[in-house]
Please model this.
Amino acid sequence: MKFVSRRGVGEDLERARELILAKGGEVGRELHLLADVESTNDEAKRAAKSGAPHGSVWVTEVQTKGRGRLGRAWVSPPRENLLFSVLLRLRCPPARLPPLALVAGLAVRDAVARAAKKAEPKLKWPNDVLVGGRKLAGVLVEATLSGQRVEAVVVGIGINVHTREFPEDLQDRATSVALVSDLPPDRGVLLADVLEGLDRDMALAAERGLGLVHARLTAADALVGTRVRAEGVVGIARGIDLEGRLVLERDDGVRVRVVSGEVTPTVS
Ligand code: BTN
Model:
């Protein structure tokens, strides 16, 4: 990145404001650009408690306590990538929350596909965006409930944009937009595209379920036809059902539906 504003935020991110407003959606209309923060998900959750509106977004250049799913850390070199959280005030039962990570992943997948025309990004259930089998982005959805009512949904997204070298333990498993694209990526354009996708699909999916995006989910599915292990079940992945569950066909032909967890490829 060439230019960092006095506030410590890259010019490409500053430009995202105009791009987002030009798209005319609700998500990103309130955009907080931050130089550094512990975790944008925590910022969003704190602001949600103080009444921040639907569609507010927090983007940062540096995250000191970024987290991923299953208690893992999300580490990203300063000022290279996209680290942001979106506050959505959605009307839905708590059971609709896990599939929302897939819908958010689809918005990221689509934006990456636009940025990197030949890359063919895929969605790995439940929340990863992959290119060539390597992770390019992850989604962490956290919600605050009041009884059985969803008060706020925070969608945290990390996208590797400019990073070209990864730590040793990740170098065979991670990639970035810069590594899979012919053109230099623009974080502002990517951010505006992801937010547009979230604006279009998240509220609808929360209210009506996955029906409207299911064909796109199926087309983007990275696992279908591969042999995997998830939650102790081993089988061939047969797609994602309308509740967002991963369908695995065991060797005895029985189809098992997995609600959440970690998926690993397996030969056994
Ligand atoms: C995963 O793949 O496990 C999810 C990674 C999510 C990382 C993003 S970065 C912005 C937001 N803030 C966080 O602390 N985590 C999410």
In short: Residues 227-265 form a domain with the SH3 type barrels. fold (CATH 2.30.30.100). The longest strand covers residues 134-146.
